[in-house]
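Submission sheet (multi-component)
Chains listed below:
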Amino acid sequence: MAALPADFRWGSATAAYQVEGAAREDGRGQSIWDTFSHTPGRTFNGDTGDVAADHYHRYPEDVRLMADFGLNAYRFSISWPRILPQGRGTVNQAGLDHYDRVVDTLLEHGIEPMVTLFHWDLPQALEDEGGWFNRDTAHHFADYAQVVLERLADRVPLWLTHNEPWTVIGQGYSRGLHAPGYRDYHKAGTAIHHMLLGHGEAVQRFRALAPGSAQVGITLSMAVVRPWSDAPADVAAARLLDGEQNRVYLDPLLRGSYPQDLDQLFPTLSDPAVVREADLEVIGTGIDFLGVNYYLNHIVKADPAVPVLGARLIDPPGPMMSAGIAAKPAGLYDCLTRVHREYRELPMYVTEVGASVHDYVDPDGRVKDQPRIDYLRTCVESIARAVGEGADVRGLYVWSLLDNLEWDLGYSIRFGLFYVDYRTQERVPKDSAYWYRQVIAEHTAGEGPR
Ligand code: FCB
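Outcome: structure written.
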């Protein structure tokens, strides 16, 4: 098996709303996730991110844990409403100061920061003006990016504009499971376009402002999509799902055009009033790398009874490993090599892979999460295999550092390397944290993947 590069990033990832808490502190404004989680019936058990894993206050302890366990990289997101409580206009210095301290603390511990600018917590004030349906949100996003870059780009080498536009659109605009809770495929195309336009405009600001050594990309949620059978209806349905999940993002970013076969889902992407002249050029502004999140493995069966999609998703056999989805970790290899094969050679970071397990602390104090270890080991092997075939993969950020609020599923499932006791906020390293430390040590010692 191929060795991973010597400077490979061994990291973990979090997102602001899922871990920070401190929802009303230091001038933070409200986001759509505050609204959504506080609306009865939207999240499991009515769970909210008000306190979460209290990472806002406990980040020094959490950074120490990362360092103790040998991690050399950390991906976290910045809360847009901490920086701009109204989404635009007045900057909240206390918000910037917080992330300034986080970055410095990481660097003091030899941990390289990777910053995500948008991990779903859109300021509510912008949602009130139409959110991602409104073209102006793209411009406001670029302005917000500029404020953050001006403060942190001198010390943060790796940047991401958006995290998983598919999930924002698929869960938040098409299926109504995530904030802001719309169920409208047809209009969702407009939100896709504005998110991508915001990405492109932010990349342009980045080029103007950030030092040459800093790099910018975007994280996509890539899925392996296969037809249930060779029947033409199943093959066509799988192609449509692949379009919704993967191609509608990869194509404009890496080829400069939207796929031509998705009108059934996103008719506004061929409306010149939405996709204006030169927009695709802005969206295609070159990125330095692609962030790949991998969880989803779809088997698609045509079913005319299902509205819009005309298809059902069948879970592949196996245990439920990722937020109620039977993910197959080996599929990470397919995603990484697909980019390389069908699009272009591009540096990639695996910005999330992870498994949810029903963890608990045993009387002996251990959290025995062997299924997570097995899952992550297959991910490391998949990366090494892709690298062996020429894919330029430079890092792995395990989802997640800590147990946290899993969006609409609340605190019902756990993804962390560290168990969080939400009554006391105590962190308990799981067996997977010790396993990861060992893997990192072996690779750093040049022994190749295990
Ligand atoms: C991804 C999200 C991340 C987390 C994991 C389980 O889709 O980016 O915030 O919820 O799923």
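Remark: The pocket of beta-D-fucopyranose is lined by residues 15, 18, 163-164, 167, 221, 293, 295, 323, 352, 399, 406-407, 415 (CB under 6 Å).
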